[in-house]
Amino acid sequence: MKRLLLLVVSCSVPGVILGGTSGWVESKMCLNADRVTSECLTQNQVERTIQGMSKGLLAGAGAAFSAAWNLKHNE
Question: Are 58 and 18 in contact (CB under 8 A)?
Fold first, then answer.
């Protein structure tokens, strides 16, 4: 159980960092685009960054559980 927790944490932390960074960059690119949409102007940059972080967290945790499941079934 401790190994699974360590695996989930070690996969989720980079996911949160990468997801947050991509959300932040996406919002910056949206504001610097030639055509700024109303969606771009109405969505908060912090909110978009948090959404990216949560997606990264879920992706990292999913990858960890998938890797653990694969390891368990290959033993």
Answer: no
Q: Give tens-digit pLDDT for 12-47.
A: 999 999 999 998 998 888 888 888 888 888 888 899
- Element holding 11 (H helix, E strand): helix 2-31
| Residue 30 CA, distance from chain mean position | 19
State which H helix or E strand residue 57 sits in: helix 45-74
Residue 46 and residue 14 in contact, taking contact as beta carbons nearer than 8 Å:
no
Residues 6+ apart with CB under 8 A from 10: 64
Separation of alpha carbons 4 and 68, rounded Å: 7
